[in-house]
Design goal:
This is XdhC family protein. It comes from Thauera aminoaromatica. It holds the Pfam family XdhC_CoxI. The protein is of the alpha+beta class. The chain has one domain. It contains 2 helices and 3 strands; from the N terminus they run H-E-E-E-H. Strands 1-2-3 form a 3-stranded antiparallel beta sheet, with helices on both faces. A hairpin with a 4-residue loop joins strand 2 and strand 3.
């Protein structure tokens, strides 16, 4: 596990220990030129804070916006294309 993912998990555990809800996003597949490799992690805190990265920023924004409207109770696969 790379140091960025390890720090992301540490931050997620700290938020959860503080009683805050946390969701983890993981890159499960990439193709072509991808800013982050498979296995990259993003932790999203219930108060909107982010740790880690799964893209160059636009995907983090979209995932955060999705969670503001509906917090996930179970895993969900979200697919993004190249534009």
């Amino acid at each position: 596990m790379d140091s960025v993912n390890l720090e992301t998990l540490r931050q997620a555990v700290a938020w959860q220990a503080a009683g805050l809800p946390v969701t983890l996003a993981t890159v499960v597949r990439t193709w072509g030129s991808s800013p982050r490799p498979e296995g990259a992690l993003l932790a999203i805190c219930g108060d909107g804070r982010l740790a880690g990265s799964v893209s160059g920023g636009c995907i983090e924004d979209d995932l955060s916006d999705r969670l503001r409207t509906q917090w996930l109770e179970r895993p969900e696969l979200v697919t993004y294309g190249i534009t």
